[in-house]
Design a protein that fits this description.
Helices cover about 40% and strands about 25% of the residues. It is α+β, with helices and mostly antiparallel strands and about 300 residues long. It folds into two domains: about 1-170, no CATH class; about 190-305, Heat Shock Protein 90. A twelve-stranded antiparallel β-sheet has the order 4-5-6-7-3-2-1-8-9-10-12-11, with helices on both faces. A hairpin with a 2-residue loop joins strand 9 and strand 10 (about 230-235).
Length: about 300
Amino acid sequence: MRSRLQLWQLALIAVAAFGVALGGLYWRQRSGFQRDARVLLGALPGERATTVYIDADLLRRSGILTLIAGSKSAEEPDYRRFVEQTGFDYRTDLDAVAASFTPNGSYFALAGRFQWPRLKAYALAQGGECRESVCNVMDGAGGRSISLQLLSTQLLALAVNPGPWGVMSVALGRSKPPALFPPEPVWISGPSSVAAGMSNLPLAAGLLLAPVAQADTVTLAFGPSGSDLQMRLEALCISEERAATVTRQLSTSLNALREAITKESASKELREVGGVLAAGKWEQRGTRVIGTWPLERHVVEALAGGQLDAR
């Protein structure tokens, strides 16, 4: 059953992770964006959650989804079989995804085009169980389940939980969307402990995120800025004094990073990642600390294609 779990994750769940990492590649506005994002996020459990939103349709229309995904010939055989049997391919059929990662499980609301009879048949073929518009596939080895439900013709709910039928916790209008709603089309927001736990980040990114662990919540967002892009990090602190401390430490880290990438001993990774991050700036607005980084389109495309050389 482990291979079944991996297949479902690759086909549906991993779309969210892939979008978080590369979803900042956007430079065109879309009317109705906030309305759509609020509907999707309002369907997910939100208590003690890290939330994510990705507008996949914008990535596709800008041509960046193709750049990120690469050639179809390079896809995993399992994913190709999944597409053949279900008729769902994120390249063409996924428009947006919202995710909520909680202590009780991971929940997703996906907007797009779904062929429920084929998805249901696929779940049954993997040894799952279906009840009308809800299906559940158990992972016997891991003790988790993948469950999915068709909420409407263009909205699919998905959940990964220790127990079965977790997707029943996803429902339109279930939760109240975040009060501070990022205006950008792609973002991730959650407790600062999420940033503190990212031990696998490049050194340059780790240097800047370490001070942010003192904040209450952290939001990382990507969106347009003129003809290029901008990455924005917003840290909400419990007091203005704490925000001032975080701002000072971030400024110190940023200056240290700028000095480090100029040294001859600097690694290629430090030069590439640090060169982008060193262009950022910080400011304090009351209890909030806001950092912004300009991202030129050609640099973003190079990063997505793995072609950015040391500068």
